[in-house]
Amino acid sequence: xxxxxxxDDDLMFSRMMADLMIRMExxxxxxxxxxxxxxxxxxxxxxxVLLDVRLPDGSGLxxxxxxxxxxxxxxVIILTGFGDQNGAELAIKNGAWDYLEKTSSIxxxxxxxxxxxxxxEARRLIRIPKVLKRDGxxxxxxxxxxxxDSVAGAAAGDGSVLIVGDSGTGKELFAxxxxxxxxxSGKNFVVVDxxxxxxxxxxxxxxxxxxxxxxxxxxxxxxxxxxxxxxxLFLDEVGELPPGIQKTFLRVLQEHRFRPIGSTHEVxxxxxxxxxxxxxxxxxxxxxxxxxxxxxxxxxxxxxxxxLKNRTExxxxxxxxxxxxxxxxxxxxFKGVSPEFLEILQHYEWPGNVRELFHATEAAFAKAGDEPTxxxxxxxxDLRVKVRLAISATKKRPPGPVPAHSxxxxxxxxxxxxxxxxxxxxxxxLLSRAGGDVESASQIAGVSRAQIYRLMQKHxxxxxxxxxxxx
Length: 471
Known about the structure:
Layout: E1 3-7, H1 11-23, E2 27-31, H2 34-43, E3 48-51, E4 54-55, E5 58-59, H3 60-69, E6 75-80, H4 85-93, E7 98-101, H5 106-126, H6 142-156, E8 161-164, H7 171-180, E9 189-193, H8 202-207, E10 208-209, E11 221-222, H9 224-227, E12 232-236, H10 243-255, E13 257-258, E14 267-268, E15 272-277, H11 281-286, H12 292-298, E16 301-304, H13 315-330, E17 336-337, H14 339-347, H15 353-368, E18 373-374, H16 381-396, H17 411-433, H18 438-445, H19 449-458
Parallel strand pairs: 1-2, 1-3, 3-6, 6-7, 8-15, 8-16, 9-12, 12-15, 17-18
Antiparallel strand pairs: 4-5, 10-11, 13-14
Helix pairs in contact: 6-7, 13-15, 18-19
């Protein structure tokens, strides 16, 4: 029996679906708003959410990532009275199991429910704990855990993988993780930066050449594809691959054979292909800028990396990880961070993603000099200005009418929320100053070690990110 949540303001349809799910021997929960749905998910672990799109307090599509990121990570089926191709694409790319119209027959509504629950149960049964090599992949958010699951699945096979994500999200890190956890881990991981390939030398770089083939070819040279023999070939920013090379590379991908420039003989290369892009290759294919047949071969499986703004709960771990690396690199004591420093990082949009976060952290580290703690003043001025302007604009925005569904929390709830926030900030600052040492932290705070551990567990704070670089 599964727990199924129905979020729909059409009470008649909601009751019909609830009756249907009960007949299928599942336990049902119902909510008519997004807010109510999130509250229900806080009360019980859901296996499946049947989600309407148009709700009184917003669009179900907007809240889909939040639903997928709760602890139980339920499957989601979108049910809407208004068919929309763009909505279907957005829903599925954000992890929805299916996108169905309410006018569908009963069988068309029940079959996806059965399949989604079968899939969920199968994953639960076969999920064997495995320690993956994930060097440099930092974070424990549901989005990152989902990506790690995908890495494990990709590493278990040998098909091509396409990694899609904005610049700075760590596409090469995930490509390396796939390689390091695969049967090819003992062989070469060869990186090809497609955006930096000189148009006049691209074939020579990829396929190699014989001596004397062109001016300057004073000796034979092995190409990158041959160097990847037995290992993994990583095409970074594959969308930048010159159109003339795409056709040639398609054959190489199919046959794993090619002819170096100037050679009369073909050579073989048994490589596994992993490619990455920050561009919409499907759109490029429709515009004739990227071969669709090559795209089909690239994406035997696809890994979608979330932007940093969609996994802000990882920002503290990422910051502490990079500060520890900086301390080790320069042989300096580990620096703590103030709650206000982390608050600024949490409010920034990070268009450059993790790469930009690391640059900002390094700039703050350098500016702080010998100071033991980082404060907002150490961050780049333009970053701080953007955050303050955004906060100011939010505060100055004229209040609109209060929605009927909006409920002001009780004084007790408001006070509890404020105390929880202050408590978490205090523990982060405390462990930062204590370098992750619980004994020292308990002495500073004047409480027992057990109490420190309880608070760390309550706020999901990991000690490892605060440990001193010398440990």
